[in-house]
Amino acid sequence: xxLWTSLGGIAASTAAALxxxxxxxxxxxxxxxxxxxxxxxxxxxxxxxxxLQGLDHMLLIIITVISIxxxxxxxxxxxxxxxxxNKTPATFTHNSPLEVAxxxxxxxxxxxxxxxxxxxxxxQQEIPVGDITIKVTGYQWYWGYEYVDAGVSFDSYxxxxxxxxxxxxxxxxxxxxLAEAGYxxxxxxxxxxxxxxxxIGKTVVMQVTGADVIHSWTIPAFGVKQDAVPGRLAQLWFxxxxxxxxxxxxxxxxxxxHAYMPITVKVVSEEVYAKWLEAAKAGDVVLSAAxxxxxxxxxxxxxx
Length: 304
Ligand SMILES: [Cu+2]
Prior knowledge:
It is built from six helices and eleven strands. The protein is an alpha/beta fold.
C-alpha cells in the first residue's frame, strides 16, 4: 500500500514537472548568455552580430597565416644563418625589391581588411530611423529605461541586488526569486527584475546616457555596445531576428557594484509586444513567462 502511495506520489510529481516544462517551453528561450565551458561568441541574433562574427573569423584566419609565416621565417633564418652554419656572413645592405614588397604587401592586407570592416562599422554607426526608440540611462548601479514614444519608463535591477531584497549574493531566497521569474541559478548576476521588451524584426534605436558616471550598455548576441556618458546622448540600433531572452552586463568600470547591474532584453512577437506595452502603460512592466503564453494564446484565438 505504501509502495503504491509513493509510486502515485512519484507519478504526480513527474506529471507536475512535465507540465512545468511544457509551461516554461511556451515562455521564452534563453538564447544570449555565457555558457560554462564554451568559448567564442553567443549566437548571433541580429545581422550586425552576424557581420561582426564573420569579420572576426576572417581576421583570425589572416592573423594566423601571418603569424605562422613570420614565425617560420624567423626559425628558418635562425637555423640557416646561425654562426656555425654561416661562417662568413654576407656584407650587403638594402634590397630594394624586398623593401618595396614588405611595404606594399601589408598595405594590400590592410586595404583588404578595411574593405570588409568599414562597411560593418558604418552599418553599426549609421543609426536608421527606428520603429521603437528607447532611452537607457546608466545609474550606480542599475539601468533606467524609457520608451520614448509610449511614455513607459521603469528601472531594472539585478535579481538579488539590494533593491530586490538581496545583498548581491546567491542565497536560497534569491534562488527562489530567480525560479519565480523563470530563471535558474545559472542566470544569477544576469537576470533582472524588469526587462527591456522589444518585438522581433523591428528596428530598435537605443539612446544611451549615464546619470552619474560612465557605464556601458551591451547585448553581445546583438553585436552592440555603447558607452553611457553623462551629459551625452549616444545611440545604437539593432533588429532582433530571434525570439528569446538575451543578457548583457555593464561594460565600463563604474564603481563598487559594477558587476551587479546586468541587462535583460526579451525579444517577443509583435502581438506579445503590443499586449505587453498596453500592460506596461497601465503600470505592469514585468513580462512573465505566463504573460508570454497568455498574450500568445490571445493571438491564436484571434486568428481562429
Ligand atoms: Cu555601470
